Amino acid sequence: MSTGDQSAGALREEILAEARLRGEEILRRAREQAATLLVRTQAEAETARRDRSSQARAEAAGRRERLLAAVPVETGRLRSARTEALLQSVHDEVRRRLLAREGFDYRETLVVLASEAVRQMAGEVFVVSLSPEDHAAFRAGLAEEIARRAGRSPLRVTLAEDAGVSGGGLVVRDADERQVWDNRLAVRLTRLWPDLRRQIAVQAGLVAGGSP
Description:
Layout: H1 3-49, H2 54-100, H3 106-119, E1 125-130, H4 132-138, H5 142-150, E2 156-161, E3 169-174, E4 180-184, H6 185-203
Parallel strand pairs: 1-2
Antiparallel strand pairs: 1-3, 3-4
Helix pairs in contact: 1-2, 2-6, 3-5
């Protein structure tokens, strides 16, 4: 396993562990709120039941049923809202770490992102665009390493500075610019987030495995 894979795996496990802890807190609060709602409902229903008129009793019974029916709905709404807030906080933390290049080997990540794109694109000549800062810091040997990792031959990879590539990551184009693979970190997170969001929610116990 490469250093990049190990770093990404460690970051993923750390994020999942944090998500599990927050998930447990969501469940605990939802149960507490459900219990409070139920106690209040039962108290109100008991007060209404004591009304001696048959009409009042009928109305009280109807109200009690409506209130009891609302408990799981309200509990579900609260849990859903807290789950969404948790997932958004995980997304924001992941994005912060990516942009701060925290917890992973950034040069290795550039190699993996570029070679992955090249492997899946047609052609033999590719240009990898980096921010001016990344180009200055990592250009030595980077194109050769990307070509080697791509595992294709013949293959020619060149690097280019591009001020439009910001926030980390890179963009890969073929020689004619008919194919463009945007692997900037923030863009890639946006592209992968729907599936990552589902995996985090399932593994943190926030939703069942088959839930949308």
